[in-house]
Design a protein that fits this description.
25% helix; Murine Class I Major Histocompatibility Complex, H2-DB, Chain A, domain 1; 6 strands
């Protein structure tokens, strides 16, 4: 689904999140940082006693988010998006760049945002796949 101008819609984003059949859509948080040609989405699932990070499909979700962001009007354009789905409803929050503390790292900001929605529970990240471990030359 696209809007009448041809851009992805919020319904498109939610439909992509719902494609994760391993975990329900209920209790999902999407945090995304966007800019021209840049998208950094993170998906978290509230699992009761912990929060589970889900790897986003950048080819699908990333493209839809960029398309959605490019379809937004206004200036300054928002840079962060927080979409939480719970109790059969969604809440959406946009954050403009001037409201972001540049002293806070993006990892710390993301963790703070997750905790603001789901509380102070452990966040479980999946292990790196053996064939995809990062390597660094010194």
């Amino acid at each position: 689904m696209v809007d009448d101008r041809g851009f992805a819609t919020l319904e498109d984003i939610i439909a992509i999140l719902a494609e994760d059949t391993e975990y329900p859509l209920e209790g999902t948080l999407l945090h995304a940082t966007l800019d021209h040609g840049l998208v950094s989405p993170s998906i978290f699932k509230d699992r009761g006693n912990h929060i589970l990070y889900r790897d986003p499909d950048l080819d699908v979700l990333g493209d839809a988010l960029l398309d959605f962001w490019e379809g937004q009007e206004g200036d300054p354009r928002w840079t962060d998006m927080e979409l939480v789905i719970r109790d059969g409803r969604f809440d959406l929050r946009y954050v403009c760049a001037d409201a972001i503390d540049l002293e806070e790292s993006s990892i710390d900001r993301r963790t703070r945002i997750v905790r603001s929605y789901f509380g102070d529970k452990p966040i479980i990240y999946p292990p790196w796949p053996e064939d995809d471990l990062p390597t660094y030359a010194l």
